[in-house]
Design brief:
- With 368 residues, the chain is of the alpha/beta class.
- It has nine helices and seven strands; from the N terminus they run H-H-H-H-E-H-E-H-E-H-E-E-H-E-E-H.
- The strands form two sheets. Strands 3-2-1-4-5 form a five-stranded mixed β-sheet, sandwiched between helices. Strands 6-7 form a two-stranded antiparallel ribbon.
- A hairpin with a 2-residue loop joins strand 4 and strand 5.
- Helix 4 runs antiparallel to helix 9 and helix 7 packs across helix 9.
- The N terminus is likely disordered.
């Protein structure tokens, strides 16, 4: 009887295990091992790299990919900025013959008129009670300290005039400067955009606003704040007086041009100083169809228009050079960061592989 009870119990237990196959899972690895030993050549050819299923290593790998993609973007932006610098250089060179001819004619007329030219409104010096500042900034960022340097320069000039008891207002060229000064308690006369390719139409609108403000007596002097282009790694915020003009400065001021080079695969700038244009000789017996004073008075707005266009082009070149430098620095930083992350990823991968090996050895030791 006891034997029958034991047999019945064993039969019930076996039935319980066989009727619930989902309760236990059995993995047979023998065929896989046999395939490894029998088809070693095939497995070697189809073998893949070890994939680390560690969360930290996967996060580092994703970050490396992101950094490399960012580096590609910054490198492309640097090349685009370099191409635009060359276009700005060509624009400056294209306007140079007109500026030279205008300076030569103006110098000859001033020599012919002598002291009579001092009576022209745009050449008349008067007591300064209010100054208009023309501030040139950029429309976009990602150009280092280009915009912030010019904004600080403008604020410093406004405070300096305020200490002298002189009022001031602003003509803003560029969205960055306009956005900043609109939140400040400084009067703004006009706002213009600073495009990547300044043209004479844009310069004409600005010069008309300046001349109308000066001739109507709303301002006594106009100063221009712009970024002087020195090199691809250096620029200088500068201030110069636009109106009233100085006859001697117009006729005796030299000029300089820059040329972007790529010698040895590296970008560089060659600057060239240009001599003053020789005054055109007008004989004393020459008869002018119009009064020479009227001719000079008509040349001055053209000269102002040319100067504004030139400073806009130079400011754009400075902005693009600053963007080139910023994107180069960003690319270098991305390279260093990707290198450090690769080292960290390799350490994490080696640690994970070592841990797996230790677990295998420990399991094998436990079975002995």
């Amino acid at each position: 009887m006891k034997f029958l009870c034991v047999a019945f119990t064993a039969l019930a237990t076996a039935t319980a295990f066989t009727t619930a196959p989902a309760s236990f899972t059995t993995v047979t690895t023998a065929p896989a091992l046999n395939n490894v030993f029998t088809d070693s050549g095939v497995s070697h050819r189809t073998r893949r790299a070890i994939v680390v299923n560690d969360g930290k290593a996967n996060a580092i790998r994703d970050r490396i990919t992101t950094v490399n993609n960012t580096k590609k973007i910054t490198s492309a932006m640097k090349l685009v900025a370099a191409a635009k610098v060359r276009r700005a250089q060509d624009s400056v060179m294209a306007t140079r013959p007109f500026s030279e001819t205008l300076q030569s004619v103006f110098g000859g007329l001033i020599n012919r008129l002598g002291g009579e030219a001092a009576d022209l409104p745009l050449l008349t010096q008067r007591e300064v009670n209010k100054v208009t500042l023309v501030v040139i900034t950029g429309d976009r960022g990602l150009c280092g300290g280009y915009n912030s340097f010019m904004i600080k320069k403008a604020e410093a000039r406004v405070n300096e005039l305020k200490l002298q008891g002189i009022e001031s207002d602003l003509i803003l060229i560029g969205k960055k400067g306009a956005t900043y000064f609109k939140r400040r308690e400084i009067p703004i006369r006009a706002v213009y955009d600073c495009t990547q390719n300044p043209n004479s139409k844009q310069a004409l609108a600005i010069s008309e606003e300046i001349i109308n403000s000066f001739l109507s007596g709303e301002t006594d002097a106009v100063e221009l704040l712009y970024t002087k282009f020195l090199s691809l790694i250096a620029s200088s915020p500068s201030v110069r007086t636009l109106v009233p003009f100085s006859a001697s400065e117009i006729s005796q001021q030299g000029d300089e041009v820059f040329e972007l080079t790529s010698a040895g695969g590296d970008f560089g700038v060659n600057r060239k100083e240009l001599d003053v244009a020789e005054p055109q000789d007008f004989p004393n017996d020459m008869i002018f169809e119009q009064d020479p004073l009227q001719i000079v008075n008509s040349i001055l707005p053209l000269y102002l228009n040319g100067q504004i266009l030139r400073t806009l082009q130079e400011s754009v070149a400075s902005e693009l050079a600053a963007r080139m430098q910023s994107m180069q620095s960003a690319s270098d930083n991305a390279t260093d960061l990707a290198k450090r992350l690769s080292q960290e990823y390799n350490r994490a991968r080696q640690a994970a592989v070592t841990q797996e090996l230790l677990e295998i050895v420990s399991g094998a030791s436990a079975l002995e």
